[in-house]
User: Fold this.
Amino acid sequence: MKRLPIGILGSGKGSNCRAILERIRSGDLAAEARVVISDVLDAPILDIAREFSVANAYLPPGQFRTRLEPEAEEELVKMLRGAGVGLVVLAGFMRVLRAPMLRAFPQRIINIHPSLLPKFTGLEAWKQALAAGEKVTGCTVHYVDERVDHGQIIAQREVAILPDDTPERLHARIQILEHELYPAVIAQFCQQYRGRSL
Ligand code: GRF
Assistant:
C-alpha cells in the first residue's frame, strides 16, 4: 500500500506525535513517519521517536526565541526533503515558520491548536477560553501560514467547558480529542496521496 511520508516537528512532550505513531503502527493510518525533528535538544518528543524507531534529529534553532534562524530553517527544509517528506505535521512546535518552509511545502504543513480557531490563538489557549467564560472550546487542525495559529481550517472538535473546570482538566480533555482528530485529518491526506492528488 502507498504510504504518505510525513515529518513531525515538535518542541515538547509529544503526546500528539505518540498518537500518530501508534495509529501508524497499528495499521490504522497509511502514513510512514520518516523523521521527527525538534528545536529542543532534550524534548520528550525525540524519545518517543526513538521508542518507535523513527529517525529523529535535533535542529539547533539559532538565536531567536519564536522563530528559526534563516540558516536553520533552510537546514530544516533540507532535512525534510532529504527524508522524502510529503506532509509536515507540527505537533507542539513552538516556532513560527517563514518563507523557506512555507515555499518548500506549500499547503503541505499542518498544525493542531487547542482552541476553536480563530478564537484564542497563542499560548495556553484553554486558559484563555476559561477566562473568557466560554461554554465550549476545542481543538483545530489548520494549514500553516506565516501568522501564528492562522491559516485555513481543516477540521475542528468541540469540548464542553464544565462549571467546575480547572485549566488542567480542560486541557486534558482537549488533548484526548486532539489525539483522535490529528490522525483522522492525516488519514484524509493519506487518501489524497493514494489517489495521487497530493
Ligand atoms: C497541543 O496541545 C497542541 O494543540 C499545541 O501544542 C500541544 C502539543 O502537545 N499546538 P504534545 O506535545 O503533542 O503533547
About this structure: The longest strand covers residues 31-38. The two ends are 16 Å apart (CA to CA). The chain has one domain: 4-195.
